[in-house]
Amino acid sequence: MQQRAWRRRARPGRAREPRSQPPGGRGELSRTPSPPPPVPFLSLGRIALALRSPAARAPWAPCPRRRPAGSGPAVPSPSMEPGEPREARESGPGAETAAVPRWEEAKAFHDNLTPKKKPKSPKPQNAVTIAVSSRALFRMEEEQRIYTEQGVEEYVRYQLEHENEPFSPGPAFPFVKALEAVNRRLRELYPDSEDVFDIVLVTNNHAQVGVRLINSINHYDLFIERFCMTGGNSPICYLKAYHTNLYLSADSEKVREAIDEGIAAATIFSPSKDVVVSQSQLRVAFDGDAVLFSDESERIVKAHGLDRFFEHEKAHENKPLAQGPLKGFLEALGRLQKKFYSKGLRLECPIRTYLVTARSAASSGARALKTLRSWGLETDEALFLAGAPKGPLLEKIRPHIFFDDQMFHVTGAQEMGTVAAHVPYGVAQTPRRPAPTKQAPATQ
């Protein structure tokens, strides 16, 4: 019986050997020892090798069922319609192709869950630094009223109580968002370059108010890593240390201080109505005289009238004008524009500049254009209005910011929905008022 049981367990085609009997057992012949039982066909080693093979199925693929031999073709599931393609269940090219979309979806889902890595802040000496005050970037009228009426202690207490409430966007907010849009394009083309815009928040607010400012910046997903909070003192002395190319503030006295220090600066004003501006292209409009150029020509107009001015410009057509306070900022914009031009993106450049001047093209326009050429600069568009109002034209341009030295043009731009900035430079300015003795933390 034991030998029969062994024969039934033996593998087919393998020679049977006589089983040995222990001493004193049944029979007298000595027999060789029998081999151990064969390893089952589906051993753990074979399964491991199968899983390591290149054609192994994806981890989420269902395990295929083996049909008995001779059972005929597979019968479709009752829930499947005739002719409906059956989902691949076995490993092979079909399973790998089906796994690709699932993997891409899973990766996209994971990337959305993972916090995005912020770019590294550039070194100030390599970047185009734009310094903005807290009141230029955000609307803080209520907070300023509390400071004026109730004092600094109540002002700080109010800010601490509301530090989790973000400020509303201010007049410089669309301009800052456009700067960041340009930075994204630059980093796509030049991943290792530090020649980008660097935005610095410069304010004479108390340091404790900085928590609310940080929360507001994070709320709007702005990339502003450099802060300067001076606790009531003037921040103008720090602008050169930041290598500032442009300073925007709501405080005209601070702007005058910056101009006196040789820093490009302007007092920014909110428009009278909201106008949609471009989200992908930074648009900056400049006046000419006393903004890009010196006030030489305006002095002649004030002293001798327009006729003498036209004669003077014609006689000095080939003599470049002296530079104005914002010439350096236009130069910085041109440097970044050339980085796009070198990639063949002149027509798709995300920076566009405009010269919007009251000069007449025929009588005095040539000197303005030749001056820019002598500096190695240019604007994408030059608009000579011959004394006409600038507001309607700016309404069509929709710049993120417009710089002018005369409040008459600034007010006209505001009325048409343009964010305008006053450059307090040149003969057209009113005499300076005496500086106030009390400095408010939020007066920028």
From TrEMBL:
Gene behind the chain: Nt5c1a
Region (Disordered): 1-42, 56-98
Superkingdom per UniProt: Eukaryota
Biased composition (Basic residues): 1-13
GO cellular component: cytosol
GO MF annotation list: 5'-nucleotidase activity; magnesium ion binding; nucleotide binding
Protein name (record): Cytosolic 5'-nucleotidase 1A
InterPro entries: 5-nucleotidase (IPR010394)
